[in-house]
Design a protein that fits this description.
This protein is of the alpha/beta class and about 300 residues long. It contains 13 helices and 10 strands. It has helices spanning about 5-20, 20-30, 30-40, 45-50, 55-65, 70-75, 90-105, 115-130, 145-160, 215-230, 245-250, 270-280, 285-290, and strands at about 75-80, 85, 105-110, 135-140, 170-175, 175-180, 185-190, 200-205, 230-235, 255-260. It has an 8-stranded mixed beta sheet with strand order 5-6-7-4-8-9-3-10, sandwiched between helices.
Length: about 300
């Protein structure tokens, strides 16, 4: 759609919902991305529910479009295992992670268990799909059940957003979350044809080190056509053995930005916590699972 048509559609929507408010028009006219977002929203649903988008909503919408960290910290909720539903207050390392994957095309992350990497990346994927049109985001995890766990987290985040941040929904099922703006998030278990034939904008490979080497190589080979056209790629996993695609990409000379997040990026994981975990797991397992050290094969 041409810029003029996007602008006209957005202004018509604002007039329909709010009346001729010059301040609203000023806000709309400052951001083509904002106009595109509003024009792609499910207008009939908004009008049907008689929901009124306020000037404050539009200001907040503009801030969320511009900054994924602002969106996550102010509007995303997660489910804590003991505290229940809580705001997603990002640790410093999570902001660093999001900033890096937002500003670079290819990022690989070697991370400790239980530091919230999947939730962090999931929140970024949701931001990407909501505020960018016609995105196809593919999530591939080691098992389909693991991919569905990520899907559930992202759906929970979406369900708990305020109305003015939600585009219309076209598909809402186990394997796909598709919005009225043309963007969708697909969830797949690891297989050689998981991404074959798809025109993918962003690929997230979750726990890539824990896919068998044979299937991991097949997945990686099948994704190359999509990546060769400029699609973003995020790979995140705790380490396994010193072989296979995850190890080779992370340790090799290539286009990927490498990031490492050991257990102590979480502030309350002190020496006492480490000693307790080592006593229960043993040094070898602790080093691999929490200190990001690859096991010798």
């Amino acid at each position: 759609m041409k810029d003029q048509e996007i602008r006209l559609g957005a202004l018509q929507l604002s007039a329909q919902l709010l009346g001729a408010n010059p301040k609203i028009k000023d806000i709309l006219e400052t951001s083509d991305t904002l106009l595109s977002y509003i024009n792609g929203a499910s207008v009939s649903d908004i009008v049907k529910e008689n929901y009124k988008i306020t000037e404050t909503d539009l200001i907040e919408l503009k801030k969320c479009i511009a900054d994924p960290i602002y969106f996550i910290e102010n509007y995303v909720k997660i489910q804590h295992p003991t505290k229940g539903d809580i705001p997603f207050n990002l640790h410093i390392y999570q902001k660093y992670m999001i900033g890096t994957i937002h500003t670079h095309n290819d990022v690989i992350i070697n991370a400790s268990r239980q530091i919230g990497k999947s939730a962090t990346i999931g929140a970024y994927l949701l931001w990407n799909a909501i505020f960018n049109t016609d995105q196809t985001i593919l999530v591939i995890s080691s098992r389909f059940a693991s991919a569905l766990e990520i899907a559930d987290r992202i759906r929970f985040m979406f369900d708990n957003l305020p109305h003015f941040l939600k585009p219309g929904i076209k598909a809402y099922n186990k394997g796909c979350l598709e919005f009225a703006n043309g963007s969708r998030i697909l969830f797949r278990g690891a297989s050689g044809d998981a991404g074959r034939g798809l025109a993918v904008s962003l690929i997230y490979l979750d726990e890539f080190a824990y896919i068998s080497n044979k299937i991991a190589y097949e997945v990686w080979t099948a994704l190359q056509p999509a990546l060769s056209t400029g699609g973003k790629c995020i790979i995140a996993s705790s380490p396994s053995i010193d072989s296979g695609p995850f190890y080779e990409i992370f340790t090799g000379q290539n286009r990927f930005i490498k990031m490492t997040f050991p257990y102590n990026v979480i502030p309350d994981r002190d020496d006492a916590w480490e000693a307790n975990q080592r006593a229960g797991l043993g040094d070898d397992i602790f080093e691999r699972e929490y200190n990001c050290i690859f096991k010798k094969s």
